[in-house]
């Protein structure tokens, strides 16, 4: 029996690595996608034979099509996509350059659109599939210094909701994880040495939430869940 295939889009040392590790442990073959292979090649070696790294620019439709064609040929039918690719530029309306505003939208929203279109036809044909999108609280409200990030994440959330309403009847579970907090990474800890453990979002725990979503029965699918440390003020 062939192993199910999970594609993690946007693999770095935080949530992306945790998603990849969790799904490999659950018996999946996992494709690790990132703009550079420097980190993903090493991660693939650590995770073993059931993982493979691919270089992919999600804002380029031809690159995405080529990479997903390769994944189908090398790993098999794709059961799950976790869209974790994100770009954040911080600043107010006077500070953010048009190029930064555009790249936020291209990675967070256009990339999701392109990746989804690469897998939806075959998922519809099979009558099943999962697309899990990693969002942010910024999708719900703008801030003075999120003039580029918040609109991109808001558009991403709206796209995800539109996809869910269209694709659920085809057996494709589209869901959104809203991250509300600071992801626990060594480099982040270095800049926030005064913060306690309960301030941070643990990548392994977010990965648990993602896997749980993919296992839900269709009679009780969730669309939007929040991942928030109990110490976060909300």
Supply database-style keywords:
7 helices, 44% helix, alpha/beta, two-stranded parallel ribbon, 234 residues
Q: Percent helix among the residues?
A: 40-55%
Tally of contiguous helical segments: 7
Global geometry: globular
Provide the gyration radius in Å.
Answer: 17 Å
Uncertain residue ranges: none
Structural class: alpha/beta
Termini gap? 46 Å
Biggest sheet layout: 7 strands, parallel
What does this structure look like?
There is one protein chain. With 234 residues, this protein is an alpha/beta fold. It is built from seven helices and nine strands; from the N terminus they run βαβαβαβαβαββαβαβ. The chain has helices at residues 15-25, 37-47, 61-74, 98-126, 149-167, 186-191, 203-214; strands at 5-9, 29-34, 51-55, 78-83, 129-136, 172-179, 182-183, 200-201, 224-227. It has a seven-stranded parallel β-sheet with strand order 3-2-1-4-5-6-9, with helices on both faces. It has a two-stranded parallel sheet with strand order 7-8. α1 crosses α7 (203-214), α3 (61-74) runs parallel beside α4 and α4 packs parallel to α5 (149-167). The longest helix is centred in the middle third of the chain and has 29 residues, at 98-126. The radius of gyration is 17 Å and the shape is globular.
């Amino acid at each position: 029996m062939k192993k199910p295939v999970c594609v993690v889009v946007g693999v770095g040392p935080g949530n992306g690595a945790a998603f990849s590790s969790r799904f490999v442990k659950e018996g999946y073959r996992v494709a690790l996608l990132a703009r550079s292979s420097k980190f993903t090649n090493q991660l693939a070696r650590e995770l073993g034979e059931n993982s493979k790294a691919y270089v992919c620019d999600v804002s380029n439709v031809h690159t995405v099509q080529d990479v997903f064609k390769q994944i189908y040929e090398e790993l098999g039918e794709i059961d799950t996509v976790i869209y974790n690719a994100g770009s954040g530029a911080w600043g107010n309306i006077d500070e953010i350059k048009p190029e930064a505003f555009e790249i936020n939208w291209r990675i967070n929203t256009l990339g999701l659109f392109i990746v989804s279109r690469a897998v939806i036809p075959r998922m519809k044909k099979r009558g099943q599939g999962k697309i899990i999108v990693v969002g942010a609280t910024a999708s719900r409200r703008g801030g003075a210094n999120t003039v580029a990030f918040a609109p991109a994440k808001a558009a991403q959330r709206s796209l995800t909701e539109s996809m869910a309403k269209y694709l659920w009847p085809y057996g494709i579970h589209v869901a959104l994880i809203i991250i509300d907090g600071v992801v626990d990474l060594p480099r982040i800890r270095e800049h926030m040495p005064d913060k306690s453990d309960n301030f941070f979002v643990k990548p392994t725990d977010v990965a648990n939430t993602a896997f749980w979503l993919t296992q839900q029965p269709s009679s009780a699918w969730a669309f939007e869940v929040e991942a928030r440390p109990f110490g976060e003020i909300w």
